[in-house]
Amino acid sequence: MTETRRRAPGMTPEQRRDMIVKAALPLVAEHGAAVTTAQVARAAAIGEATIFRVFADKDALLDACVLQALDPAHALREIAEVPLDQPLAARLAEAAEALRAHLDRMGAVIGALHATGRAGRPAPGGDAAGDGRRGEGEAVAAAGRGGPDAGRGRGEADAAGAGDGAGAAGGDEPGAVEGRDRPAGTSGREASVARTIAAVAELFEPERASLRLPPERLAAIYLSMLYARPGLGGGDREPVRAQELAEVFVHGALA
C-alpha cells in the first residue's frame, strides 16, 4: 500500500480520477450514498485528501460514478471484439450478454443510490438517476429512425464510446480542484444509444446483401427487444436467455 501511495501523486489527473472512480464503483453498488470517502480511499490505496484534489465533495464523486455506470464504452469494446466469422445469431447473443452485463452494473449503482436516499437527484447529463435503464430502451426506439452516428463503423463506435465516460479531469493549476471546472464528458443518452446501435449494426454487415432491413434498423429493433423486461410477463417466469433472443430474432419462431 505504501508503494501505491507513493506512485499516486505521479499520475495524471485523468488517471487519478479514473482510479478513484474504479475503486468507488463496487462500494457505491454495495452501500449507495452511505459510502464514505474513507472507504473509497482505502479501496484505492490512497490518502483521503487525494479524493478531494480530484472531486469537490462526495456528491461530485457519486456523480462521476453514475456517469461511469451509464457509460457503455466497456460493452461497446466487447461487441467490437465479437468475431464476424461466427453465425449471426452467435454474434448477437454475445452482444446481448455484454449489454446486459452493462445494464446490470448500471442498475446496481443507480439502484443502491436510489435506495439510500439519492432518489430524484438528476444524473450528470440530464437524466434522472432512477431512469437510466428505462430511458435507454426508450431512446433505442427513437434512435432506430436514424441519427448522426447510424452509419459509423465498428472502430469509430468503440472510440467514441470510450470518450463519453465520467469525464476528463481538469488541469493542474495551483490551487485548483482537478476536474472541477471542466464539464462532464457526456454527449447524452441519445448519442450513447446511437453508438450502441452502430456497434450492433456492424454485427449484421457480413449478411448485408440478404438482410430484410438496413443493419442500423435491425440493430435498433434487436436492442428494443433486449432492453424490454427480461422475464416477459413478470412474476416468476424464466428470464429470456441471450441465445434464445438471438436465435428467434434471426430465424423466427418457426423451426
UniProtKB/TrEMBL annotation:
The keyword Transcription applies. Residues 116-191 are annotated as: Disordered. Residues 14-73 form the HTH tetR-type domain. The keyword Amino-acid biosynthesis does not apply. Keywords: DNA-binding, Transcription, Transcription regulation. InterPro entries: Homeodomain-like_sf, HTH-type_TetR-like_transc_reg, HTH_TetR. Residues 162-173 have a biased composition (Gly residues). It comes from the Bacteria. Residues 117-126 have a biased composition (Low complexity). Residues 36-55 bind DNA. This is TetR/AcrR family transcriptional regulator. It comes from Sphaerisporangium rhizosphaerae.
